[in-house]
Amino acid sequence: LSLPFSMHLIQMDSVQRWMEDLKLMTDCECMCILQSKPISIEKDEENELHLTSQYSTCDNLQLLLKRAWIISTELTRIAQKLEKNRWQRVHSMTVRVNCHVRSMINEYSSLTRNSSEEMHQYEKLLIDKCSEFTAFTERCIQTEDEHILKSMKSCINETLTTIAQYFGQLIELVLTHEAQNLLRQIELSDSVYITEPAISSLFSLTQEGAHLCRIIAKEGGVVALFKICRQDCFRCLYPQTLRTLASICCVEEGMHQLEKVDGILCLADILTDNTHSEATHAEAAAVIAQITSPHLTFTQHLSSFLENMEEIVTALVKLCQDASSGEVFLLASAALANITFFDTMACEILLQLNATKILLSACSDRHVVDTPYSRDQVVTILANMSVLDQSASEIIRGNGVQLLLEMLFERSSSGNSAEVAACERVQQKSAVTLARLSRDPEVADEAIKLSCIPRLIKLCRSPTERNNSDSVLVACLVALRRLAVMSPDALEESDFQQLVKPRLVDSFLLCTNMEESFV
């Protein structure tokens, strides 16, 4: 048969394309049907996990991680089925895992050229052990002798454990290898067009969890990224680079690397350089917020932070003042809030910079302070500053008591659990701030005039108003008692007898057991 030349080309292109795709497209379920007989009649087939390899729409790292997740999940499910002695399902799932493992290794081998000898060794060990596992389970479905099955069960469990170990070690080697390749690209390239996708891929890796962040940090990721942040030719990549650094610095290894390369000094330079974009400043603030997080237990070694703290705090206050969006304000204020936990000297610097007025003013702009998360940061700063006697007059001048009262009414509009938790923190911290500031008679008078006492009583007596939060209840009881000292006549006798006069713990127990009245 003679084909026109153009048709011949089309035909050849299609076949060639099919041959190339075939290497990457292994349908595991078809292989299961061919190898696992008889086909299970149990009803949990709909729970099977599927993955189609489409390299054109998913890079090799994401493909690998998806395949690894499926294998890990299947191994867990095999162990569960094994406990229930469901041998037919154990065997069919074992065949499927075998297929997934081979597919993963073939896919990765076709997409990488310079894998290590150690990696090849683990690939062979894993494939051999999976074959052995499949043979074991096949023998199990061919016998009904309970004694034989019981004796084989321990061997199968041991093999399953070994497979999980080999698999974990192989994935560790592969991810380390990929991180090394990306970092090599970043370190050796002087082209934005090569460096940008490498940083993007590295950021994607950091989103896969703390373990990958540790691998990247150990392989020199923090060093390589700060090197980018010190080169003017890569200025357009600073936001993306800083975002990746913030992710890596969630782990202790990342923090140690940051300290070694004078990362704090680099961040201070970026924040104080007015020629950088707002986006760059915001991402630098995000790194500061991450490394000063009060939830981390490994910030004590950041000695260089104290040396640069005044410059950093000044730049962050300016960023709050000039913020063009809620996101920028949130990042800058979160960094400031964390710093006020990190060192008390920060609160004194904030007072000198007139930060109270700036933050209170921002709260009146709904385009800037637009979520409970932002208000949480502001009230955190106010609560930490309120330990200083000078802060009371600043807060009164900025109409801060009115803002604190408004924050006592904070409620979630979406019902989202994270937002609800943020609203609880806002209520709690506003009550704490009121309690601390009310040692100043002027603040207490202002709070009483603005009717803070009725709202505090409502929060104590109504669990739904405080979303059943015990921390909000304790803070409100303390604030109420502080105000009651200044103005006992502002409370009804029953409120005084139940919420103020008893020990704090007794009032707390009374309120937590209180039935709401809907009359």
TrEMBL record:
**Membrane-traversing stretches:** none
**Record SMART domains:** ARM
Ranges for domain Protein inscuteable homologue C-terminal: 67-519
Q: Which InterPro entries match?
A: ARM-like, ARM-type_fold, Armadillo, Insc_C, INSC_LBD, INSC_LBD_sf, Inscuteable
Q: Which GO terms describe its cellular component?
A: apical cortex
> For the Protein inscuteable homologue LGN-binding domain, which residue ranges apply?
10-54
Q: Name one GO biological process term.
A: establishment of mitotic spindle orientation
Q: Which GO terms describe its molecular function?
A: cytoskeletal anchor activity
One Pfam family of this chain: INSC_LBD
Q: What protein name is recorded for this chain?
A: Protein inscuteable
Per the UniProt record, the source organism is Calypte anna
